[in-house]
Amino acid sequence: MDWKALFGNRIFKILFAGVVTAGTLAAQPYRPVVVVGNSMQPTYHDHEFTIASTALGALRRGDVVVVQGPQGPMVKRIAYLPGDSITYLYFGREWMLASDGGFRKLKDPDKFPKKTVVVPEGYVFVLGDNPDVSIDSRQLGVLPISQITAKIPNPRPQSSA
Questions:
Q1: pTM of the predicted model, to two decimals?
Q2: What's the mean pLDDT when you consider all of the chain?
Q3: For residues 73 and 36, what is the distance between their CA atoms, to the nearest angstrom?
Q4: Strand order in the sheet with 72-80
């Protein structure tokens, strides 16, 4: 079968257009992201679509990022940057973040043993907006900045509830 006689130069034009389109899409700094799980509620819900940028720029506290975790990509909020101090309180039988909401209800949190750690250079401490179900830096520890693959440019503001 003579392809050139059958299609002329059309097949090459179609292939060229496909390659150019694929290359253009691959070079774009924006990627679709599907939020999986409830760890970012109420900001993002399970199976919600959003757009993330691969142009990270300067990272700030409060930025919502896509970070490569041990089980795959996770959408989390940056809570602490390199050089930031994190205070933990020993409560019950475990160390818990002093900034978690439950400690504000304690009558005298100063009576609990404390420890402070500093986020090392090149790492961030990330949290989900729904701490009851989120697997984040409280369990995983600090994560390398190099594992942040994208940033959600203008996430909805974090709920104050």
A1: 0.74
A2: 82
A3: 9
A4: 30-35, 48-53, 148-152, 64-69, 72-80, 123-127, 143-144
